[in-house]
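Lesson 9: reading folded outputs for more than one chain in a single document. The general rule is that every protein is listed as its sequence immediately followed by its structure tokens, and records are never interleaved. Here is the first one.
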Amino acid sequence: MERVDVSEAASISTGIAARYATAVFELAKGEDALKTLQADLGILEAALAESADLRDVITSPLYGRDATEAAMGKLAAAMKLSQITGNTLRLMAQKRRLFILPALLRALREKIAIHNGEVTADVVSAKALTKTQADKLAKVLAASVGREVKLNATVDESLIGGLVVKLGSTMIDTSVKAKLNALQNTMKEVG
């Protein structure tokens, strides 16, 4: 049996998404349309999260290029997306690259954040953070990196308590779950 390196396919998708993201970002920046692009990203992210049909269209090989391109054109018009975003979706459909749409949206968010001097921190907590807690955490993180920090907060009740914060390549895990796992590993080593 032949081994398949799944990471290679993922890195190819990431590379394609990065190239599209660079092109779209530069077009929007050249037309002074970054705010519009940012709004389009929010609309597309929400649509992908809510619509199983849309997720199916972008990943299924059963739909032909022309049908997919027409669908993306109608979708862009219905969602009132900018011309840059609509044209990009149609081009991606024609080139059979719609499968990278989620990665493209992430890459564009990253480019816009860097352009705006922002850093995004992924925060996972056992309970939803209050506005005060989120503001205080963002302020502490901003002081440590020297730039404005936007929080991407999610909830994972399995953490029991505490937080897991990912900021760039740094991860801080103060969750009760991690502490219990560390204690369990220590007990295994002793016993």
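And here is the second record, again sequence then tokens.
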Amino acid sequence: MNGAEEIATIATTTTATTYDPSLLSIFIQASLAVKLIVILLIVCSFWSWTIIFAKLTHLKRLKAAADKFEESFWNCGSLDAFFENVSSKGGDDPFVMVFIAGMQEWRRAKSKVKSVIGGISLNERIAKIMGVVIGREMEYLERHVGFLASVGSTAPFVGVFGTVIGIVNTFESIGATQNTSLAAVAPGIAEALYATALGLFVTVPTVIAYNKISSEIGKYQNRLESFIAEFSSIVARQIEESEA
């Protein structure tokens, strides 16, 4: 064995001995670009999970409050008495705010003799005002949910970008050392696969959570709109009775 072969053998052995396949070691030995990609994905993952837990907890609380409100609403003897009770307590529950908006408009119009003003019936005005409140509440409820959609759609490509950089680094290492052994190419391949795996790790739960949260928000919105229809029916019936 000549001197050059001996040096190459020692270098290969040293690389194989010192190479640590742990995730922390891969991150430390990765190139700056891959490190930045990994940090970006970790930050996006952390913020996504924060939004996911916050939204799911908030939706669970809203559903429980909606059950309680609807039970009280359908068991109340008088809408006016129920309105006084609900408005005195206040709160930020969308069902309460929608109901208060509808009752306030109804009370303002009760003193009017005509139930149709400007071609728009009182019932329609109440439904429109309650719909505006729903739109405002849904806008608040959907806040930050779009971030989950953005992360779910872009994280795989960010991971693939890290993969490409890792593979490029591998070929550069092969070209510089003229060594195609596993010990020589392992670091570059490892950081490439690391970026790919991290991109998928961020994407999959984020997409699942986004679909779940969007579905729950849609169900809650439908529930609010159904309440508007039911409340409008009650108002229409009482208007007909008062005009009879």
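What the second record shows: The beta strands are 116-117, 120-121.
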